[in-house]
């Protein structure tokens, strides 16, 4: 049954216009428009892994999409604009609940065999082989077995990704990857707690920055500033805000510069060449600004010169000698 859209007169279905006013006819009652359903609303979306960076998450996303698994990447950092907000919640990789088991198995298989060629991986399952009669349960079983072998090997070898021996047997390590695909940051967790952070600042494949944690607090940090594989700067941190720095300025393995900081602001500095027991120079700071220098220290604790400075580092007085 149709009805005129202007006068309301009813006509049979084969009529097209109203004989009275010539207006077009519409079916009555009108057929409801089909409801468009978002694919994301049809099935529950679950998070299968959390990454420390968008780069790592997008690499995993690309790998899963290559196997026909639709996935989504999201984080609470305004699309990556505020990177300082990425670390607390991480970057989340989500898939449909029905794809979760297969997606996890594929990601674990890639971690277990980081050096495998693409041909070896595609021999298990590829988009071109989706019509294979091999049950997915067999694929999942193989992936889980590879993952267990990887965990067992990691615990027994005690090695991290860059081949550096680690003291945390059974720890979990998360990596950030540079554009060349190699890790340049690592977070090591033991029993769910962060115990160490490592960084490869010059991307040479060796760690050169280490930070150690106890009970969630940073307690120590080491730096290799000349990238020779040995630390030459050592920091210690305390809960009362007093931090200390030892620095090997000539890179011979012996600290010769000693500093004291309070709430991140330098207070005091001593120069003891090659670990000498007495200071040859002392510097005093106020609110982070140098105010006084003692120079020419000897083994008896005496200094040849004491110079005081104004806030613009202009000398305002000089006295000699100074006794410790």
Q: What would a concise description of this structure say?
A:
Helix content is 19%, strand content 34%.
**Poorly predicted parts:** 114-133, 151-165
| Largest sheet entry | 13 strands, antiparallel
The end-to-end span amounts to 109 Å
Order of helices and strands: EEEHEHEHEHHHEEEEEEEEEEEEEEE
Tell me what you see in this structure.
The strands form four sheets. The chain has a 13-stranded antiparallel beta sheet, with no helix packed on it. Strands 2-1-3 form a three-stranded antiparallel beta sheet, with no helix packed on it. A hairpin with a 2-residue loop joins strand 8 (183-190) and strand 9. 19% of the residues lie in helices and 34% in strands. With 324 residues, it is of the alpha+beta class. The chain is elongated and about 120 Å long. Residues 114-133 and 151-165 have low confidence and may be disordered. Helix 4 packs across helix 6. It folds into four domains: 1-33, no CATH class; 40-120 and 136-157, Alpha-Beta Plaits (2-Layer Sandwich); 162-229, no CATH class; 232-324.
